[in-house]
């Protein structure tokens, strides 16, 4: 290779692109910061269309003339500036395929604030992302090429799995701490499908046996690593799961046992594929976060797992005039060690922010804490 002039530079760049494809942050591990916390911003149901020309849904009539997809973009930017998250998670229906002229361009526009922020971001698919020229596989393959994403099309070690966008991310302990080489928080992302492909079963899709098998194997592997030396732990690191369509178990709650609001029915699959039981059996998942039902934004606990909606985010998505679009924030905090360093996860907290003048924070709650989990285990063992 001739080492001189602009041709050499171009050849080097091309070679690097071939040998080291751009997968955003895929090779840069996620990690808790020096302050011992890790913050996740969840964006559910953007329903992005073609940008400025795509009108808003379910806003007051006086807002219609100036309301478009750009309101969704502005809301994401405000949330990023206000919360400064360590990870942004998009939980499906990122674009509304039927109203998209160019799926690739709409995907890029919908994720543009996350891309520009230089913050790692992850995405899963909903039931509307593929309703344009790109298939579900095509949408996910385009997403993983975008800057700063940590999304994967599917696990590299799995040859056969249903759906696209099944993967896990490990969040390491604080650099320089005794937990820096351990994943102290595990994030699971799954494709909950779009619609049933079985004629005798109507309605939405569900998480299939192949995906559950992958989840079980991944959970066991992560638990073995966490409970092995050095710094061997007695129990698994907490896990959080993100996907689009809520599980049938979301129907287990009423106004007496959840935080938030339920303003529409639970649009889960018409069959129960058993994934909730699979998560309970695995023992590490402490919270599940979904979208899909835009007018629901509650969290409720069932058998030790918090089942949470984010609430509708996007302005081209259906909503309710006067009921602000919203986003969910999750903060995971580590415990302070006796010697002053940071240890394992101590608590998982959440709140929502409304797209109003002040980005009002509502419904702050502790979803899980190490101390309460320990108390619950003692009660179970003692039989009281």
Number of helices: 8
Low-confidence stretches: 1-26
Strand order of the largest sheet: 1-5-6-7-8-10-9
Annotation, overall tally of beta strands: 13
Shape call: globular
For the record, give the distance between the C-alpha atoms at the N and C termini, rounded to a whole number. 75 Å
Largest sheet: 7 strands, mixed
The chain-level mean pLDDT equals 91
Into which percentage range does the β-strand content fall?
15-25%
Helix content: 10-25%
Q: Give the helix/strand class.
A: alpha/beta
**CA-atom Rg in angstroms:** 21 Å
Structure description:
The longest helix has 18 residues, at 209-226. The strands form two sheets. This protein has a seven-stranded mixed sheet, covered by helices on one side. Strands 4-3-2-11-12-13 form a six-stranded mixed sheet. Strand 11 and strand 12 (342-354) form a beta hairpin. The protein is globular, with a radius of gyration of 21 Å. Helix 6 (209-226) runs parallel beside helix 7. It has helices at 5-19, 69-83, 103-110, 112-117, 136-143, 209-226, 275-282, 370-382; strands spanning 30-31, 37-43, 87-91, 121-124, 167-172, 183-189, 239-242, 285-290, 299-302, 305-309, 326-336, 342-354, 361-369. 45% of the residues are buried. It contains eight helices and 13 strands. Mean pLDDT is 91; it is low at 1-26. The protein has 384 residues and is α/β, with parallel strands linked by helices.
């Amino acid at each position: 290779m001739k080492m001189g002039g602009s041709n050499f530079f171009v050849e080097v760049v091309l070679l690097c692109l071939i040998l080291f494809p751009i997968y955003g942050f895929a090779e840069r591990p996620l990690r808790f910061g020096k302050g011992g916390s890790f913050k996740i911003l969840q964006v559910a149901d953007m329903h992005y269309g073609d940008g400025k020309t795509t009108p808003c849904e379910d806003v007051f009539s006086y807002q219609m003339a100036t309301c478009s997809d750009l309101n969704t973009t502005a809301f994401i930017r405000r949330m990023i500036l206000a919360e400064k998250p360590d990870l942004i998670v998009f939980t499906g229906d990122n674009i509304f395929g039927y109203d998209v002229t160019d799926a690739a361009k709409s995907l890029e526009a919908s994720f543009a604030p996350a891309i520009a922020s230089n913050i790692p971001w992850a995405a899963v698919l909903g039931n509307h992302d593929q309703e344009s020229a790109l298939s579900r596989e095509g949408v996910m393959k385009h997403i993983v090429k975008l800057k700063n994403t940590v999304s994967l099309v599917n696990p590299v070690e799995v040859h056969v799995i249903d759906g696209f966008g099944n993967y896990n991310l490990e969040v390491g302990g604080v650099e320089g701490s005794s937990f820096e080489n351990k994943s102290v928080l595990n994030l699971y992302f799954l494709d909950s499908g779009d619609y049933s492909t079985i004629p005798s079963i109507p309605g939405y899709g569900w998480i299939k046996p192949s995906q559950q098998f992958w989840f079980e194997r991944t959970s066991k592997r992560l638990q073995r690593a966490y409970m092995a030396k050095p710094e061997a732990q007695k129990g698994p690191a907490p896990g959080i799961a993100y996907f689009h369509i809520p599980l049938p178990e979301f129907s287990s709650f009423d106004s007496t046992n959840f935080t938030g609001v339920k303003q529409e029915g639970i649009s889960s699959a018409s069959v129960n594929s058993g994934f909730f039981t699979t998560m309970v059996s695995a023992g590490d998942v402490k919270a599940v976060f979904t979208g899909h039902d835009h007018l629901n934004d509650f969290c409720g606990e069932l058998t030790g797992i918090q089942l949470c909606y984010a609430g509708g985010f996007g302005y081209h998505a259906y909503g309710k005039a006067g009921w602000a679009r919203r986003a969910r924030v999750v903060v995971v905090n580590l415990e302070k060690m006796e010697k002053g360093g940071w240890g394992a996860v101590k608590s998982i907290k959440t709140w929502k922010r409304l797209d109003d003048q002040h980005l009002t924070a509502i419904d702050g709650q502790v979803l899980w804490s190490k101390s309460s989990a320990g108390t619950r285990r003692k009660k179970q063992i003692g039989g009281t």
